Amino acid sequence: xxxxxxPPQSAKPTQVLEWDRGRQRRLLDELxxxxxxxxxxxGTPLTVTMxxxxxxxxxxxxxxxxxxxxxxxxxxxxxxxxxxxxxxANGNVVDVSLADGVTIDTSALARHFPASSSCGIxxxxxxxxxxxxxVQPPAAIFSVDPEILTGLPDRxxxxxxxxxxxxxxxxxxxxxxxxxxxxxxxxxxxxxAVDKVIGDALLNERLPLSxxxxxxxxxxxxxxxxxxxxxxxPVVASVSAPSTLAVQLAREYGLTLIGFLRGxxxxxxxxxxxxxxxxxx
Length: 281
Fold this sequence. Notes:
Elements: E1 2-4, E2 11-20, E3 23-32, E4 35-41, E5 44-51, H1 56-66, E6 76-83, E7 89-98, H2 106-111, E8 115-116, E9 120-121, H3 127-132, H4 146-158, H5 161-166, E10 170-175, E11 181-187, H6 190-203, E12 213-216, H7 222-231, E13 235-238, H8 244-253, E14 256-262, E15 265-270
Parallel strand pairs: 1-6, 4-7, 12-13, 13-14
Antiparallel strand pairs: 2-3, 4-5, 6-7, 8-9, 10-11, 10-12, 14-15
């Protein structure tokens, strides 16, 4: 598979005015970049999503996988930034070429998937759509120590390179059962960050993620659980609350869903059988 890269800018400096207890000063601040990314398949526009530039090919590959358009890395022949009329690569347009003989559902193309950095793929949040795609439950043979879980947010925060500069990004990270960080991606949209980290695993042939914990900043929404299930993730944790539909989906498929993972506390909403508990409560 050929991957043609053109590094984008994930953070941008800007002049600001700081007011602090009556004192004011002008200084240079950094903002997390938010720009549209158009994903094309074979030159045909598929979707536009607002994202933080960086790991764009991971994002495109993860999106195609989690939306059911490809199932394995071998179905992707090439990913590149599209070239404009001047012949220069456009850092906001990614074109995915599929392998010979691979086709995707043209009805999916017709939807064009309007998306934003905050809402994910609006209008698709239904458990029926997951059932229709024959998504399989994650591996049952996986367990995690609660003490390991409580240490993950600090490791996530300490590894957020762009967040440390801008303070304005979500993150998705993968950890092994011992709590070792194996992958992390950042984005203004939490669902984009998840697609990026899953896309990286897809392109590097590390799927299914049957021995990984997915931790996301913010809340654990339906789209996060749905994407995790497609990638084979058995445990999803978030530092905030899950939604009702996320909990319903996790319980139906036997995924372990953790919310409010902060300090020494968390709440298990589904799949507590994977937690190495000392006693039954």
